[in-house]
Amino acid sequence: MAKARNLTQKIIAQHLVTGKMNPGNEIGLRIDQTLTQDATGTMAYLQFEAIGIPRVRTELSVSYVDHNTLQTGFRNPDDHRYLRTIAGKYGIVFSPAGTGICHQLHLENFAKPGKTLIGSDSHTPTAGGVGSLAIGAGGLSVALAMAGEAYMLPMPKVVRVNLTGALTGWASAKDVILHLLGLLTVKGGVGKVMEFTGPGVATLTVPERATITNMGAELGATASIFPSDGQTKKFLSRMGRPEDFVAMAADPKAAYDEEVEIDLSSLEPLAAAPHMPDRMVRIKDLDGMQVDQAAIGSCTNSSYTDLKATAEILKGKRINPATDLLIAPGSKQVLKLLTAEGLLDPLLDAGARILECACGPCIGIGGSPVSKGVCARTFNRNFEGRSGTQDAQVYLVSPQTAAQAALNGKFTDPATWGTPPKKAELPKRVPSIRQIFVFPPTDGADVEILRGPNIVALERFTGFNGKIEGAIALKVGDNITTDHIMPAGAAIMALRSNIPAISEHVFTKVDPEFVSRIRALGGGFILGGENYGQGSSREHAALAPRHLGVRAVIVKSLARIHRANLVNFGILPLLLVNKDDYETLAQGARLTIPASDIKPGKPIDLLVEGGAKIAVTNDLTAKELEIIQSGGLLNTVRLS
Ligand code: MIC
Ligand code: SF4
């Protein structure tokens, strides 16, 4: 009899190209679908062009424009035009600016149970809400998957998150994942897939599941996944694609590497306090704190059901005049539904601002709060400064909590909120927005790729031989995010296709002198703590430091996607054998790395000027080491 498998193992087994399915062992997966978004997409497609094949080899590839849709100046619209023409040429579906947020749109229109999806955005696991094995990756990894290459990753451990009971009162799906983050922390999911099972699963609708799988990214998890069941069938048929449904679940006796229990009925409204998504607090304990801005949207909480709940709370009321309320629906489909169901009026009449269907304030593209402003945002990240206001205090909450905060002008005890609205469901007939997508011609040979002057050709990095000498150009602490390394916001994100220009902003929010210092040093190393590079998938957080001459990062531990991006661009990720050595190494210390002596998984000594030796190791495979030694992945795969 075949071995009982959990759902993650089943999908992996069906897509396994290389490797053995033992946790930690490198495996290669066949990828059915890819997605990109504008801010990572231009680089991904420049790399795809460099690989040199005529058409994507996936079942489906979609290019969404949702992050920077401001089009201030020529750079941003030029990027969008490049993305549109590239999509036509290579057989990619194009989603124009304003259609919606990539993860919301993908869930509504394309995600399928049992399929593998990789996306150049860390919240790609949202599609796990319909039972896809969906993983965030760097742009180059996505480019390779589009070229038909297997996606390489360490076989994840599978965590069974057993849900019992049902949500009650004002508790929502957002509170489930905030609770899990409080329990496991922002590094609790590294190297793992969170697989949701148990009797509580059936009580959650697909949009609720997608809120949970979306924010599994904040746990550092490789993916999060729900089974495909009656709820999935209902969702897919209401989305007008019943044929995409297949039932999928773990075998009843399947084993898991770890287990977590959550009793849904024990949950209450929660928040993640500034400035980390795992700083879980109870809303009741924030009672009385003034709220300057409430914002509802982002790929976590911008579904029709989220906004319906919001509209029902706001109906017939006016928000507090001292509190701004920003609402960005996740897609035009959500917006059309709100209009059709008469739910837009209550939002408008209450005083909400309706923003474009895009990421917007989530990534600092407008909607920045006032100085020291307290925000109640339904988003997934509250890293310091990410809102565009460095001293803002961002609390991550559910739409219900954000709507209450907007009404009251402050956080209040949920016990005072009255009876919660009935759980929102999608209506039977959902309007289609399929005609807004641009589907590619069957032969793109005649499509001309249009590039603006901001789109700068890729640089060729050189490999190394022998030893690498240099100084620690920057020492940083634990949980450094890619927002610290490569800040976002409208102005800097407009430079995503121009590595020399965007490199001027590396680490500027942490240390404004960093760029001039590393230039003066002629390159060097970064010393970091635990979970270095968590958060976004932006490969610019590896590519731009590499452009500035960073050759190695020496850390206590690394986040998964950033680790892969470092390898992809030829930066050595070295792990301190003795974590206490972090204290003895100072910024400015000169080091020699005997790079040619590095072997997979073997410790070596770094020589510190003055004679000290520091042991470092690595968790690289032989192939990854070879990639770094040859100056990055593109050097090993280019045809052109
Ligand atoms: C984010 O939420 O940080 C982003 C912006 O969506 C990033 C991608 C990017 O930096 O372009 C992500 O999550 O991967
Ligand atoms: Fe967009 Fe925010 Fe989601 Fe990132 S987290 S994809 S910026 S909405």
Describe, in plain words, how this protein is organized in 3D:
The protein is an alpha/beta fold and 640 residues long. It folds into three domains: 7-266, Aconitase, domain 3 (2-Layer Sandwich); 270-416, Aconitase, domain 3; 468-635, Aconitase, domain 4 (Alpha-Beta Barrel), CATH 3.20.19. It contains 21 helices and 26 strands. The strands form six sheets. It has a seven-stranded mixed beta barrel with strand order 20-21-22-23-26-25-24. A five-stranded parallel sheet has the order 5-4-3-6-7, covered by helices on one side. The chain has a five-stranded parallel sheet with strand order 17-16-15-18-19, covered by helices on one side. β10, α7 and β11 form a beta-alpha-beta unit. It starts with 6 loop residues before the first helix and ends with a helix. The mean pLDDT is 97. The structure holds alpha-methylisocitric acid and iron/sulfur cluster.
Figure out the total of helices.
21
Describe the strand arrangement of the main beta sheet, using strand numbers: 20-21-22-23-26-25-24
**Which radius of gyration do the C-alpha atoms yield?**
23 Å
Query: What is the CA–CA distance across the termini?
Result: 48 Å
- Helical residue percent band: 25-40%
Sheet of most strands: 7 strands, mixed, barrel
Mean pLDDT: 97
What is the name of the CATH superfamily of the largest domain? Aconitase, domain 3
Q: Compounds present?
A: alpha-methylisocitric acid, iron/sulfur cluster
Count of discrete domains? 3
Approximate strand percentage: 15-25%
Would you count the extended β strands for me? 26
Report the uncertain regions. none
Just name the CATH architecture of the largest domain.
2-Layer Sandwich
Backbone shape? globular
CATH topology tier name of the largest domain:
Aconitase, domain 3
- Given helix and strand content, the structural type is alpha/beta
